[in-house]
Amino acid sequence: MKNKITLIFLLFVGLTYAQNQNPIMVKYAETITVEDMKEDLTILASDALEGRETGKRGQKMAAAYIRAHFEELGLEAPVPLGNRMSYYQDVKLKTSKVGEIYVKIDGKKLTNSKDFLYYGKGSNTDEITTEVIFLGSGSEKEFENIDVKDKSILVINSDRMKRREILNRATEKGVEMVFVVRSNTDEEFKTFIERFGKFFSRESLGLDRGEEGKEGVGAFYISPSKAGEIVGKPYEKLTKAIESFNSGELKALKKIKPKNVQYKLEFIQKKIISENVLGYLEGTDLKDELLVLTAHYDHLGIHDGKIFNGADDDGSGTVAVMDIAEAFVQAKKDGHGPRRSILFMAVTAEEKGLLGSEFYVENPIFSLESTVADLNIDMIGRIDDRELESENYVSLVGSDKLSTELHEISERMNNTYTNLFLDYTYNDENHPERIYYRSDHWNFAKNGIPVIFYTTGSHPDYHKETDTVDKIEFELMRKRAQLVFYTAWEIANRDKRLVVDKATKEN
Ligand SMILES: [Zn+2]
User: Fold this and answer.
1) Separation of CA 154 and ligand 1 centre (Å)
2) CA of 263 to the centre of ligand 1 (A)
3) pTM greater than 0.85 (yes/no)
4) Cα 52 to ligand 1 centre (Å)
5) Nearest alpha carbon to residue 274 among 438, 121, 94
6) Residue 192 CB-density burial (10 A; 0-12 exposed, 13-18 middle, 19+ buried)
7) Ligand 1 mean position to 300 CA, how many Å?
8) Which of 134, 280, 307, 482 has a CA-to-CA distance to 460 between 20 and 30 Å?
9) Residue 149 CA to ligand 1 centre (angstroms)
């Protein structure tokens, strides 16, 4: 008996489920197929594309492939370039690598990443001679006690948070350079160098905003015995002087007179251009408002001869955006074009720190004020290693953070059309992985634009050369892409623009 009731109930639910569906939307969602996705992803994640690392040949090849797809669909090229329009937005980047960096005490040259560690950007200089002042532990009181403008300071402080304050204060006061003792013994210092030396001297990549020297004062991390050499006294005299200062003897620090020190900072910088690939579909009566769909197409490149194919990360999101674009184009051809305009954007340099999307929001092609939402997809092709209720799932992040309506639409579209298990584990702002801040949607969200981030989360092949196309669950991936399509359709076609009813939490 009970089973019969359940059956009738299920039939009823199934019927209303189907009845609420808009057949036009279903028709175009069904144009997103496993075959199309497989074909595109097999190319994007092939060895020929060399792991699509930002600025490298494989990334350029991937950009050309996506661009060709957008052009073939008939999407407009929206980026002004001279007197023509382009699908590419040139993202200006700059790499910086440590060149010759040294410190000289008593004319004796010390080596970076061995005798000391330099931390900071700084531009190229010839050898500089600097006057050093001993500033104890670098407290506010010590800064007030001595004039440090245009001079270098030597401080002893093993507290990480305090050291950050010291650098900020030193920048404010116009200090030239900071010498920091952060370890209590030479032995401890050696361990520190072994642990962080590589990290500090690796090549870094950032946006090239054409401005120099705004990063704040740099710091040389030195050992206790080297600090002793700078003042020409045993290290203990320095810690004693701090104790005396703290017990009221204000002249204790001034009695320590460090020698002048020479240093050189050389960085090898290179300008790089990488490409965001943009395809634009103009809306009808509400075309001045814009919905953005994003996925990053760059990945990690080649390391130790191994190609990181990045099939899931984020080949999966990239082909989803390509195929969702195709569905909307087809609908428009049949007279069902979206009322709002849609920008399909394959983003570069995500793996380098969300740089492509950061560049876009700093140099938007369409005003951010008229941008109603960003739906961002990053890794939707796998089943992650968590225990979830169903394999038929997708994790959503950010949907309820800025717009209650967006969250409701997303839930309703899923209930009506895709029936995936929606997992919100990563949506918790206190989640240790901080996913809300870790893909391209964040650059939109921080500008007050509502976002949904779609992901299926991490797996053992994440950021490994084993993230390959043969491991993709295409049938599941297709459903996840369809949920994005339905949600996009609703956002683009509803009468009213999404209401932003929650203030931006961080900026
Ligand atoms: Zn990714």
Assistant:
1) 42
2) 40
3) no
4) 12
5) 94
6) middle
7) 10
8) 482
9) 44
Query: CA 178, 184, 187: angle at the middle one, nearest 5?
Result: 105
- Which tokens is 76 given? 């407009």
Tell me how far the alpha carbon of residue 320 lies from the centroid of ligand 1, in angstroms. 14
- Average pLDDT for residues 403-417, to the nearest whole number? 97
> What is the band of 319 on the pLDDT scale with cuts at 50, 70, 90?
very high
364-388 tens-digit pLDDT: 999 999 999 999 999 999 998 777 7
Going by pLDDT thresholds of 50, 70 and 90, the confidence category of residue 120 is confident
pLDDT band at residue 123 using 50, 70 and 90 as cut-offs:
low
Q: Is the pLDDT of residue 228 over 60?
A: yes
Measure Cα distances from 295 to 284, 322, 349 in Å. Answer: 25, 10, 11
Domains of the chain are 21-76+282-493 (3.40.630.10), 95-269 (3.50.30.30)
- Ligand 1 centre distance from Cα of residue 80 (Å): 28
Spacing, Cα 454 to ligand 1 middle (Å): 11
Residue 115 identity: D
Question: Does the structure show a pLDDT above 70 at 211?
Answer: no
CA 298 to centroid of ligand 1, rounded, Å:
8
**pLDDT value of position 310:** 98
Amino acid letter, 277: V
Cα of 351 vs centre of ligand 1, distance in Å, is 7
